[in-house]
Amino acid sequence: ALALFSFTAVKIFHESLTGKGFNLRILYAFLAKQSPVLLLAFHERAGKRKTDYSGYIPQAAERLRQKKEEL
C-alpha cells in the first residue's frame, strides 16, 4: 500500500514497505521535472502507528538540499 503525504514545506514524502519480519520507511521527494530522489530509508521497529519521523526529517531535508545543488 502506498501512503503519501507532505511532512514539510519542502514536500518530503514517505512510503511504507512491510512484510514478515520487516517494516521499512522510505523518505523521498521530487526534483525538477518530477524526477524522484530517495532521501533515506530506515527500519521501523516500534510498529505501524508509532513511527516518529521527527529525527529523520532534518537528515532528509539536508539530502534534498544537496541533490538540488547538484542540478
Overall form: elongated
Measured distance between first and last alpha carbons:
31 Å
**Could you name the ranges where pLDDT drops below 50 across 5 or more consecutive residues?**
none
**Total of DSSP H or I helical runs spanning 4+ residues:** 1
Order of helices and strands: EEEH
Q: Per DSSP, what share of the residues sits in E-state strands of 2 or more residues?
A: 25-35%
Strand order of the largest sheet: 1-2-3
Structural class, judged by helices and strands?
A: alpha+beta
Note down, in words, how this protein is organized.
There is one protein chain. The protein has a 3-stranded antiparallel beta sheet with strand order 1-2-3. The chain is built from 1 helix and 3 strands. Strand 1 and strand 2 form a beta hairpin. The chain has 71 residues and is an alpha+beta fold. The model has no long low-confidence stretch (mean pLDDT 81).
State the gist of this model.
This protein has 71 residues and is of the alpha+beta class. The chain has 1 helix and 3 strands; from the N terminus they run βββα.
Descriptive keywords:
three-stranded antiparallel β-sheet; single chain; alpha+beta
Please describe the topology of this protein.
Layout: E1 13-19, E2 22-30, E3 36-43, H1 57-70
Antiparallel strand pairs: 1-2, 2-3
